[in-house]
Amino acid sequence: MKIRALRVLACLALCFALASPVYATESDVTATVNGTTAESGVTVTVNGTAIETGFTSQVLNNQTYVSYNSIVTALYPDAVAVWANNQAEVTAAGLKLCIKPEASYIVANGRYLYVPQGVKVDGYHILVPVRTLCQALGASVEWDGTTSTISITSGTGPIASGESFYDADDLYWLSRIINAESGNQSLQGKIAVGNVVLNRVASTRFPNSVYDVVFQRNQFTPASSGTIKRTPNEESVIAAKLCLDGANTVGDALFFVNPRVSPNSWASRNCTYVATIGAHAFFA
Predict the structure, then answer these.
(1) Of 145, 162, 179, which residue constitutes the final position of a domain?
(2) Full-model pTM
(3) CA-CA to 155 of 20 to 30 Å: which in 84, 256, 273, 277?
(4) What's the pLDDT tens digit per position in 203-258?
(5) Whether residues 144 and 242 fall in one domain
(6) Residues 210, 173: contact at Cβ < 8 Å?
(7) Which of 162, 196, 226 is the last residue of a domain?
(8) In the chain, what are the helix, strand and coil shares in percent, each to the nearest 5?
C-alpha cells in the first residue's frame, strides 16, 4: 500500500514538474518532515538567479535533498518529463535522467549515481540530494553558510554516458566477482564487495587492475572454482557501476569474510574491523 501511494504521488508530481520556475527565494520555514530537518530560509540559485523550488530543502545525514524539477528546468529549459516504468523519466538535449522513488540511485545517461538514503517522495515532490542531481546534470554546487545559499552553476553539458565512462573489462569482471561473492546479498552488501576489489586496485599491496586483483592466487574462491564465469544478476551489474562511479559502503576495507564459514579468519585476527553488512564482515 505504501509503495502504491508513493507511485500515485510521484505520478501526480509530474503534473507539476518542469513548469517554468518562479524566481524567488525559499520561504523562511523550519519543519521536520518524516524525521528529517527542513532547512530554514535557504536560497537556491541557478547561474546566479534565485529560483523557487516549491519545497523547503531537507537535510538527511548531511545530504541536502531538493525537489528535482525546478532545478532541471532552470538548467535545461527544453526538458520533458514522463512517468514510465514506475519512475520519472526526464529527457533533454544530451540528457536521459531516471529517478525512481525509494531507489538507492538515480540513472543519468546510463551512469548509476548512489543515493545512500534513497530517493524520497514528499507530497507532490520527488526529492534527491542536490549534489547528486547536479552531478547528473553536469553542474557544480557551492554552499554559502553566511547567506544560507545553495549556488548551482551550469557546466558544458550533462554527465558523460556510461558507455564512454565505464571500462568494459573492469565492469565485466567486477560485476562477476560481486555476483559470485554476494549475489544473494543486499545492494549495500554487493557494493561493499566491489569496494574491496577497487580498494585493492588502489593499494600498493595488491595488483593494480580489477582482473589481476580478482585472479590473484588464493584470494577469491570463485576465481579458482570457476563460479566467477556465471552471468551476473542485474543488481550485481548495477552495484559494479555504482562502485565505478564512487559508491562506497565500507570505506577502505581490503578484506571480507563470512564469519559463519570462517569464524577465526586471518582478517578478523590481524586487521581492523570496519563493518558487517549481511553475511559478510569487512576489515581494513
Answers:
(1) 162
(2) 0.86
(3) 84
(4) 999 999 999 999 999 999 999 999 999 999 999 999 999 999 999 999 999 999 99
(5) no
(6) yes
(7) 162
(8) 35, 25, 40
